[in-house]
Amino acid sequence: MPTRNPADMLQIAGIEMVSWRRIWLVAGLVIAIALPFLFEGFTVFQLTRALIYAIAILGLNLLTGFNGQFSLGHSAFFAIGAYTTAIMMDRWEVAYYWTILPAAAVCFVAGFLFGLPALRLEGLYLALATFALATATPQILKYEPVAKFTGGVQGLDVFPDDSPVSFLSNDQWWYYFTLVVALIAFLVAWNLVRGRTGRAMIAIRDNPIASKTMGINTALYKSLTFGVSAAFTGVAGALEAIVIQFVAPDSFTFLLAVSFLVGLVVGGIGSIPGAIFGGLFILLIPNWADQISQGLSWAIYGLFLIGAVYVMPAGAAGLVRLVTMRLAKKPSG
Amino acid sequence: MSGSLAERSEPDPRTASGPLLDVSGIKLSFGGIKALDDVSFTVDSGQIVGLIGPNGAGKTTMFNCLSRVYVPNEGQIRFKGQPILKEPTHRIADIGIGRTFQNLALFKTMTVLQNVMVGGHCTTASGFIGNALRLPSVRREEDELVGRAWSLISYLGLESVAHARVSDLPFGTQKRVEIGRALASKPTLLLMDEPAGGLNHEEIGGLGDLIRQIRDERDITVLIVEHHMSLVMAISDKVVALDFGRKLAEGTPAEVQKDPEVIRAYLGTND
Ligand SMILES: Nc1ncnc2c1ncn2[C@@H]1O[C@H](COP(=O)(O)OP(=O)(O)OP(=O)(O)O)[C@@H](O)[C@H]1O
Ligand SMILES: [Mg+2]
Predict the structure, then answer these.
(1) Which residues does the UniProt record annotate as the domain ABC transporter (chain B) (predicted)?
(2) Is the pLDDT of residue B1 over 50?
(3) Binary contact (A206, B110; C-beta < 8 A)
(4) Are B222 and B63 in contact (CB under 8 A)?
(5) What is the ipTM of this complex?
(6) How many domains is chain B partitioned into structurally?
(7) Does A67 reside within a domain?
(8) Could you give phi then psi for residue B68, rounded to 5 degrees?
């Protein structure tokens, strides 16, 4: 008979870890729902963007954290998602909520196709190939034949409908819309990771040869994971286009891809809830740094980053794990 | 590819009566080193066969050919009468060949239970969409796999460490996890590369019993590489001896032990 994981049976203040996890989940949800009523418009807008980044980081985490494939190019999939939404709304006047799944699908295909040649590359070589993808993207978006659709340097304005709920402002409405998409994204990621697919992804990261010997089609899994990862990040891009109501090539530079990587590391590589912390970090810290000193904002950002990595070498998720391990006791009796 | 499919659908007369595994004329060189030089042998269904030889004889290389991690330069490997060298590596587990590794190839960040469950990958089928939605069929498959993994874990006496990360466990325990992981794929033929590594004298006796049990109770044919001669000679129905990539002898344990070439190889005298 299966026995329970002893780690789940550890207690803090007489309450088992499994129950704590549920308590935190419910508390987190309550806080997330209450936030738009606790803060004013601009902060709500910022929180919405942090959630969007969290989804993008979650996508990167599936690829890099769980499957061990490095990407410096996820800004490209973020851009493809954003432009899919913008073009659908601009050209065909599709309602914004119908553009999310198509953006995911387009990015899945793009990620899968990029993942095929990437199979031959590992570690630093894969990093370089994805770097090329990131640097090429803004240029391609401006390139003449493509510019017909993308609006070239000027980009595209998008006009989503106003909040359909009378007592919610537009900022609050976009927050809740984003929150629902984020919850679905996190649930899907959790489902993927805890089942057969997730075990295969991690197995490939841990030992590619043994994975093959265990019957895992590693090439197929790696390219599918690339596609799924790109789809998550593409959904985030689609949300960004809707919320900002504007897309332009220079919002999707290599710097954005590095930001995702920063969020991944700071949140916790291979941790699903860690992506939320990562999203908050890459959105809030640059703003704070800017407020402290405009001239030295990058230096201050750098200090925050070094501080974060120093205090939390395994990311925010790792710190939480460490603290709970310290506090947890074996059940008495 | 189409060729191998056609071959597979034709009824092979040897499937019923021939050996389970038929290795013929395998040659494989690395640069100038002939790791395997025209090696042929057979394994019959239900046998325990020992593959012995001094360090560097080519035993692990042979296992890597059988599990299609390496492709030999020449030769043919037939399993249940069908050629397997054209199959992709990840199909080998499905075909019925499971293996353990000499120097451990566990998924080090995973628990014992998860490692054994990955071993059952080829016996399950759910994909990304089913898992993303956690469909009822996925849940059922997962429950069934957890149940099977647990019965293997208790069969191998690993219950107390089932939720431990494998990298935190001693070498000998990790070798046992490898056996569990290989059994989870429901193999017809199990390749074991030095399973006695890291075990003490007493534990080696237990390992011999375990291997016999695996053969008798689970109907699994075993090909075992082992330096521990008393173990190999006690459990094997047949022994194949290699040295410098060449087959020296093939026969019953008694015959191989008496073989002058084998004795010379083990005493280390050069000719
Ligand atoms: N990937 C490889 N590249 C180069 N040479 C290799 C490779 N794999 C094996 N060899 C060489 O092939 C020969 C046979 O090695 P193999 O590992 O099969 O020996 P073995 O019989 O398993 O020895 P041991 O008992 O020490 O495990 C050795 O000379 C080894 O150095
Ligand atoms: Mg060896």
Answers:
(1) 21-269
(2) no
(3) yes
(4) no
(5) 0.90
(6) 1
(7) yes
(8) 60, 25
